[in-house]
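FW: tagging you since you asked about this chain on Friday. Here's the raw sequence from the shared folder, copied in full. Didn't touch anything.
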Amino acid sequence: MKSFTITNGDSGQRVDRFILKAFPTLPKSLMYKEIRKKNIKLNKKRTEPSAILKEGDVLEIYIKDDALTQRAKHYDFMTASKQLEIVYEDENIMILNKKAGLLCHPANGEYGDTLIARVQRRLYEKGEWSPETNAAFTPALANRIDRNTSGLVIAAKNAQSLKILNEKIKSREIEKYYLAAVHGKPEPESATITAYLIKDEKKNKVKVSDNEIIGSKKIITRYKTLDSRNNISLLEIKLETGRSHQIRAQLAHIGHPLVNDGKYGVEHGRYRQALCSYKLVFNMENAGILDYLNHREFQIENCEVLRTFKENGYI
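HL: got it, structure written out here
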């Protein structure tokens, strides 16, 4: 028999999903059969696969041990750096200032030192999360930015927070603002621009068209020019849609590529685009355990893009 006391990190999940994450080799058919036979109980009572777990619940599984193989204890995150710049933290979320050059998630065989691995290491070492006691939930990022873009990323400490954040980001109730340094001076100085984007997965690159084409997705970006000098402009950008490389590709499409953007811009071989996700505004209604974040704003006061622009106009 296996017994789990549900922690805050695992609350909000369905019974069946919790079990399958804790025991990845357990056949689904066997799990559902044992639930029907009352060999899986929640708080000493019969449960349904769709029952939602709450903190403090006790889930008991009366299945032979040879059918249960718990997730292997791999702690790859312990090889990650301890360096994190935390803008805000509470019992549910962390808001982090990711530096340019750091991956949010593992990619292309690079998995040791990523932003999410650093988050997991911090929470593990603080005793807030463990792969053993939080068998069905792993701290996760609710949004992501490109490796060579800097700025704000939200991490969820528990399943309920992750679900809410994902919903609110999708519904645009969490507004994301960027600062970018671009070549030239956009005309007009402020505008909402619309186009269509299609992604080439093999090349990890997108193309932008003024007209809709098969497989394309509509993109909408708002920009406002804050300053211009030395033929470089500093823009504040708000995303109305959130597609891969949207800002970089769309601004290049209108003739104002980002400074140091080797993929879409003019400085070939440079891959440290002058782009920072510098502000998050929470306008979330009915946000459950995250209601307290409604109408709050978080900002990087002196991000690298702004600092460098002020110092030398990105020359």
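FW: The chain has a mean pLDDT of 91.
HL: agreed, and The longest strand covers residues 217-229.
FW: great, closing this out.
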